[in-house]
Amino acid sequence: MQGTTGSKPKLLARVEQLRLLSKAGLLSAAEKSGLSLSAIERLGLLSKVEELGVLSAATNPGTATGLLNISLILLVLGPAFVFLVPQDYPWEIGLQVSVALLSIVGGSAAFAASNLVSTLQKSS
Predict the structure, then answer these.
(1) What is the pLDDT of residues 23-78, one digit of tens each?
(2) Distance, CA of 110 to chain centre
(3) How far is residue 73's CA from residue 118's CA, in Å, rounded to a whole number?
């Protein structure tokens, strides 16, 4: 675990270097609602994020690959489900649409997260 603690400040420095919070509008939105970075630290939100394992996962070299694999599985699942499930009843069509939408949204989110984690892990 000692190896991950040294990489957390590096990860946060990389987030700052890429100006991700500013680009995503998260920093200005937080400041408009009265949440400054010092307030976030005072509230213990960063320690809560660490308790949930988000920072450790973001620094783990296997996370980006795992997320990419999940995205590929989900993006293949939608069309496969539509192909394999019959269309005899309206509820089956509704099920096909629901699974396809969930797999597209989930697969896209996992793909984006994989790219983000990969970018954060790259050395400057």
Answers:
(1) 556 666 766 777 666 777 777 777 777 777 777 777 788 888 999 999 999 999 99
(2) 6
(3) 19
**Cβ contacts of residue 118 below 8 Å, gap of 6+?**
64
Query: What does the pLDDT look like over 77-99, one tens digit per residue?
Result: 999 999 999 999 999 999 999 99
Q: Any idea which residue has 């790259």 for tokens?
A: 122
Phi and psi based region of residue 44 (left: phi greater than 0; alpha: psi -120 to 50; beta: remaining): left
Quote the CA–CA distance of 44 and 52 in Å, as a whole number.
Answer: 13
| pTM, entire model | 0.64
DSSP-derived secondary structure for the chain: -HHHHHHHHHHHHHHHHHTHHHHTTHHHHHHHTT--HHHHHHTTHHHHHHHTTHHHHHH-TTHHHHHHHHHHHHHHHHHHHHHHS--SSHHHHHHHHHHHHHHHHHHHHHHHHHHHHHHHHS--
